[in-house]
Sequence to fold (304 residues):
Amino acid sequence: MSKSTIRSFYDTRNVRFRRVRQKEHDEILESNGNSVGVFELEGTIFFGSADTVSKQVLEKFDSDLKYVVLDLMRVNEMDSTAARILQQLQKRLVSQEKLLFLSHVQPQSYLWNFMNDLGVIKTIGEENIFPDTDHAIEHCEELILKKHLKENTFVHEEYPLDKLEIFQGLKSEEINLVSQNMVVENFDKGDYVFQQGDTNDKFYYILQGLASVYLPIPDSSYIKRMVTFGAGTTFGEMNLFALGPRSASILAAESLTCISMTIAEFERIKKNHPNLTYMMVFNLSKEFVRRTRRSDSIIKDLSQ
Fold:
């Protein structure tokens, strides 16, 4: 076997789906980060290399691993024996109630067509094959949350206002005062909340749905998803600290409901209720620190 077939392995203690979630969900995913593993493969996968990959995947499943993603982005060829080994691996994992996913396999690509002709796509299931590893990890995280949260706490209902991070420590009458000066905004899937370069002066909290940050790739028509925000999280809040053109575009990843406030409205409340807005900024700062620490931890782990 060529040693280069397995380029690297990591679990989601080190690399998570780029989604900003509410604190409770983050804590669950952090404590279960060793249950999702990603094998990055490269080169040509033939009988010997596929057999070794299969053995290493099974060895990892002997630990706490419950979900494995095979990242095929750098795989340029596969033979029929390797395809059959993938099918055997999938069937063995299913019998153990464990799950296998493939990433970077685009419909109608060479790999897709090859595996489809040999029945691999059917065996693994189209629903378990993703266009990139980020989406595959997202799916695994959703499965973990469904398992660890009570069913009625994971349905995508509107997030309660009094649970929003920005309102923590505020009295009910203070929450009412602020919320009365916020606007509910609805976006259909695919709608822009704002685009890179806009002078939009609002900050937003998501009550329901998902919003993703996209940046254009230089010299390309492609835009890359950088991070996704879920219910109970905020975006656009940097305008409170440094007003300026938007540095990226925000797109509704699904039907989206937000509450927003303009900086001018925030300043008006600040003038009449300075202690209230101090607490709001303090809460936003705590959320910013939490995100930064998570990013620092991931960078540190990946650099070791």
